[in-house]
Amino acid sequence: MRISTIRQRSVHQAVRRRRSKQSPIPTRTIEAPSITPHFSEDLECDAIVVECQSGLAQIKITNGTTTETMRYDCSLSGQKTQSVNIMPEDFDQSKPLRLEILGCNGRVKRCSNAWKMVIPDVVRIPNSKIILRKQSAIGNDLYSANDVQSAKDDDETDAELDGHKWAVMLQERGADGKLSRAKTIDLRVGAILDGAVVYYEDGHSTPCGLRLRHDGSTHQFGGSSSRTLHIPSGVDVVKVEVNKYGWGHRVLGGISMTLSDGTKAGTLNSCRFAGLASEDSAVKVLEAGAGEKIVGFFGNSGYYTQEFGIITGPKDVELPARTYDMAELQNIQTKDWARNMY
């Protein structure tokens, strides 16, 4: 992907504007503007789509230290702009890309770093056309689960998670450098989701969460309601269910996994929140798309799990060996990071 700085190309050149047809009867909706990443197989066609049904009044883009603002006609007689494409390739991805969108209805949508909406959702395997996709559940604040107005007015949707970012593949290299298949997943759940541990056929294991505590010792998961899921050869993990509401702020409440042979294990703890959040809204279901399968997990963890997600890849294609050497697909945690954690 060609990456250029905002100084090399004006923001007015770096966005592509799509005008909507003029409506004979002017209308104004109450919905806030939206910011949606659109990913395509062609790297040159990636786009961040900014939309507002009532029309866009202003787009403010900050890339690093440089800021430019685009303003659009919001008059009732004007031909309103409802959609604009922002092309990631035209900005410096080493610097945050902040977006502030003002709709003609006065609603505002903000994103402190749009790269976090685009880049974390896919993993491109170097020297290959294979793409891995990512989707996850992030812990919600239990105490504000029913605060509808607060949720409606919170336009900053990409709140920072300050824990340890990890990834664990369902095949992993052991001490001898050879790939080994995951045979067991220990889902560590107590009152909330502590984490998980994946055990491989060669005898080694990797945690889905912290490896080390702040003193440098090995982190041990708790979990009085933990369950073990055994994965026979030729059987895949096909569904992961995660309870988004744990005790406290941004901590997940529980997890369950289902295999292709129908076996299911885990503890969701979802019934605890009856009256605060319905089970349908509390539990997020993560599944592979058509033609894909789950090949690993990823997330963000402090002493408890804040985010848990799945990594999916082509169903009938063997991943290149170099996939398993990529740092972003491993759980790497240094002692220095652990000491500074809290």
From TrEMBL:
* Record region (Disordered): 1-29
Please give the superkingdom of this protein's source.
Eukaryota
Domain F5/8 type C span(s) in chain numbering: 88-104
Q: Which InterPro entries match?
A: FA58C, Jacalin-like_lectin_dom_sf
- Name of the protein described by the UniProt record: F5/8 type C domain-containing protein
- Record the organism: Aureobasidium mustum
